[in-house]
Amino acid sequence: MGKKKVVVIGLDGLEPSIVEAMLAKGELPNLARLRAMGSYTRMKTTYPAQTPVAWSSFATGVNPGGHGIFDFIRRDPETYLPDLALSRFERPKSMLAQPKVVSRRNGTAIWQQLTSAGIPSTVLRCPCTFPPDTIKGTMLAGVGVPDLRGGQGTGTFYTQDRNAVAKENERLVYLESGDNLKSGIIGPRNPRLNPPDDIRCEIRLKREGSNLRIETGGTPAEIEVREKSWSPWVKIKFKLSLLQSIPGMVRFYVRQLSPVIEFYVSPVNFDPAVPVFPISSPPDYAKRLSEEIGLFSTLGMAEDHNGHNNGRFDEADYFAQCALVYDEREKMMEHELRRFSEGFFFVLFDTPDRLQHMLWRFRDPQHPGFNRDLPPEIGQQVDVLYRRCDETVGRAMERVDEDTLLIALSDHGFNSFRRSFHTNTWLWQNGLLALKGGKSPSQEIKENFTGVDWSKTYAYAVGLGGIYLNKKGRERNGILEEGTEAERVRNAITGGMAGLIDPETHAPGIRSVSRREEIYSGPYVEESPDLLINFHPGFRVSWETTVGGFSHRLFEDNTRRWSGDHIIDPDAVPGILFMNQRAVNNHANILDLAPTILRYLDVPPVEAMEGKSLLVA
Amino acid sequence: MKICVLGLDGAAPEVILHDERLVNLRRLMDLGLYGRLQSATTTFALWDQLAREGRKSIVVGVSGKDEFTDPASIKAEIEQLVGNDPVDIKNLHTDRKDRLRDEIFAMSRRQWQVVRHLLTNHEWDYFHFVDIGLDPIQRSFWNHFDKCSAHYKHGNPYENVVPDYYLWLDEQVGSVMDLLDEQTVLLVVSESGVQLDDGPNVCDDAPDGMFLLAAPNCPLSGEYEGARLLDIAPTLLDLAGYDIPDSMQGRSLVAGLEKKSAGDGFGSGDSEQLIHDRLAGLGYI
Which residues pair with B189 in a beta bridge? Predict the structure, then answer.
């Protein structure tokens, strides 16, 4: 008998109802084979049903109270402002020291336990592994790795149209008229300039028929990009000073060359050979991997939903960009599986999640963004991608032997996002949140709780479904004492929101509101929102609420291209779980995966782990 | 103010100025003052000077001191930390080049581990450390690296040993930079450039060394031309706020210039914008 191994293929956001329908039609032959060899079940996911939260529970075998990741977004109780919850910056202690990024994910991950037991792991692109854990084996960080500007992905749109305006999370650069142009790629901000300004990297452009010729100033030095297509990766360097430069890489997309030239530059990714912050363990692993398989996206959210959401490229070219990311990932998987001989292997394919977010409206006639005139092929791209995922699982199956536990799973399912709910407006309407000067919520309060009177506010909402009490001693201007008073506010919210009906569509919008003590336990519970809304399918918290904003209405149509979501009642969006082994039952929980994997590798799970092994023997 | 000196003896300005992968050294150069250093026959040392002022010094790896570590009381602590391996390489002319390289790296690794330990766990006003790996690395591998050398063979297996060692040193200097507080003068100094037993530059004068100096109150920045090794000691004393004894030969590079107040020009930045930027492009918001 050879060495025991575990191979896990993560397929982010694969929805059970779609998988099951396709299985029934025989469209997913490899997953069907896997089911026949072992098992298939729907799998309960975390509160909330969110990528970073669910994969962190997968990795650590504990509920979010045990690992500290509750949402993409947290709020600083000192300022009430939203911030990324996956990692934090540590301010350097002197001018000589470098700023550091520290992961907020706690708990003991599978690969950390295996490292203690002397067993190697290969972990590719698991969310919340930035900065990467130091492990025996190799790790490449996933969701959470920023772009060179420090965000989750900001692209730049270039146009000769003087009337164009910048859209959500993008930079806009006007080009001169003519066919021979000079412009610049926008890099990170140079903090030493006063006021801080962006560092730019000069490029030259020339229209040649249906091509745009670009002198990149980087490597390759010159490229030609056809209209409606993406360039290969181009490495560039942003000069910080005579001595220092910051390396990065981008892809170009040419939108059109007439009547005016318009093109787009992707968020500036870290160059895997010289990342600004470490993105792999050991630190030079990313470099070696890029030498072996070619360049790959390093940005956590590699699929460019943002550029597509802004209409800078259409569905077809969004698919094309997603396919580039998927190809890179599959290449990475095959390369590593080829030399995988011991321990634990994990790879995540994020693309199904990012594609479904943007395409759901084409599959849902009740979605406000649905349009009968749109070609149905667009919505069918989801099925095309599911089939591609099935092929990927097939490739992995070819590479494993009889001593391998093979698992394919998704962290949550998917549903429609038709209507949005303005939590802060509800709180205001119910006297739990006050605005200064007796104002009422209006579209003008888009973010950051502008105009909120904290001295009369009992609760506020920020992030993807959470509600916080304005507690004395915790929030900067907290007024609520723990005890009867706080309990009254909690009851008012849970009782008032549960079963709430959308007055326009007459559909039930909110199923229930969970108190944190009902759904979380462990050392990090104090960092979670006090309450969490469980939406019915079709609803989600509004765009404005996520960043501390308001609207004059309670419910509103979601008109963005981002039209599918999963941050609803977790029971409505379970994940899928396929194993090449029989499972003890058909009600798996994502918390069971870590104990299952460790059990197969004969490593006793740490005591904190909550789930149970799903293996029969 | 405290003074921290990291000696990279034998470090060649040619390498430091041209290898852009040395990101920490470059960051240091950008923050402070740097330049070539005309070598002298003497080395510089400030521990006696500061002892007279009642200050605490820690000295590690400085040859010429009786013990490699001073005060001797911390010797036992070091042995506990990294063992009692020799801090010297016996035979540079061995044919077992791989082993030699590994031994030098291992020795250096232990030393820098000690440096970080002492910097963090002991009180000091003056810290002086000299890396003793660069000199043997260059004596043994320079000809495998320097394309101008008569002994250089293209594609030889030791081509990268020298640049790899500089990269290693760069990382170590970066790790020390992370440990120092705002009240410290940091000097990284090479008292002379590459010296080889059989090299092309065997001549009377030692080749130029180099210095990289950063202090929160340093009034000068950028490249400094014409500095001498003699000038370094008075410059350090000047920046750290000590009197410069009349007997000192050199002169402070910042003599007569008004010191900046510490913390100037190092703003915390617009943190609200920074936090906002972190969420940019998340999609869900």
Answer: B7, B211
* pLDDT per residue as tens digits for the range A412-435: 999 999 999 999 999 999 999 999
Q: What is the pLDDT of residue B279?
A: 84
Instruction: Answer yes or no: do A95 and B216 touch at CB < 8 A.
Output: yes
Residue A434 contacts residue A456 (beta carbons within 8 Å) = yes
Residues of A in contact with B217 (CB under 8 A): none
A447-502: pLDDT as tens digits? 899 999 999 999 999 999 999 999 999 999 999 999 999 999 999 999 999 999 99
Residues of A with Cβ-Cβ distance to B280 under 8 angstroms: 149, 151-154, 169
Contact A244 B23 (CB under 8 A): yes
Is B285 at the interface with chain A, CB within 8 A? Answer: yes
pLDDT band at B140 (very low <50, low <70, confident <90, very high): very high
* Extended strands (E) in chain B: 2-7, 33-38, 57-60, 69-70, 126-130, 184-190, 209-214, 222-223, 227-228
Residue numbers in B near A267 (CB within 8 A): 281
Taken in order A104, A106, A108, A109, the sign of the CA dihedral is negative
**Nearest one of B221, B219, B185, B181 to B32, comparing CA atoms:** B221
Q: Which of residues 167-186 of A touch B (CB under 8 A)?
A: 169
Report d(CA B201, CA B204) in Å as an integer: 9
Residue of chain A whose Cα is closest to the Cα of B17:
A243
- Using the predicted structure, report yes or no on whether residue A229 has a pLDDT greater than 50: yes
The pLDDT, as a whole number, for residue A248 is 97
d(CA A396, CA A153): 30
Residue B52: CB atoms within 10 A of its CB come to 9
Name the token pair of B264: 């100037």
Contact (Cβ atoms closer than 8 angstroms) between residue A47 and residue A520? yes
Instruction: Tell me which residue in B29, B267, B274 faces A150 most closely, judged by beta carbons.
Output: B274
Report CB contact under 8 Å: B278, A169. no
Which of the four pLDDT bands, split at 50, 70 and 90, describes residue B185?
very high
Looking at residue B268, its pLDDT comes to 44
| A589-609 pLDDT per residue, tens | 999 999 999 999 999 999 999
Mean pLDDT of B259-263: 70
For residue A503, give both structure tokens.
Answer: 């007055």
Candidates A133, A144, A135; CA nearest to A88 is A144
> How far, in Å, CA of A401 to CA of A50, rounded?
33
- CA nearest neighbour of A546 among A471, A613, A447, A403: A447
Once rounded to an integer, what is the mean pLDDT over residues B174-178? Answer: 95
Name which of A546, A531, A544, A539 is nearest A566 in CA terms.
Answer: A539
B282 to A82: CB separation less than 8 angstroms, yes or no: no
- State both tokens at B130: 């000299």
Q: Residues A380-402: what's their mean pLDDT?
A: 97
DSSP conformation letters of A502-513: -TTT--B-EEEE
Q: Which of A95, A191, A267 sits opposite B269 (nearest CB)?
A: A191
B29 contacts A97? CB cut-off 8 A = no
- How close, in Å, is residue B83 to chain A by CA atoms? 24
pLDDT band at B264 (very low <50, low <70, confident <90, very high): very low
- Angle at which helix A29-37 crosses helix A377-399, to 10 degrees, equals 50
Q: Report the C-alpha gap between A268 and A286 in whole angstroms.
A: 17
Task: Tell me what ipTM this predicted complex has.
Answer: 0.79
The residue among B46 and A516 whose pLDDT is bigger is A516
Whether A152 and B281 lie within 8 Å, measured CB to CB: yes
Residue where the block lists tokens 């008569």: B150
User: Measured between CA atoms, how close is B174 to chain A, in angstroms?
Assistant: 8
How many whole angstroms separate alpha carbon B77 and alpha carbon B178? 23
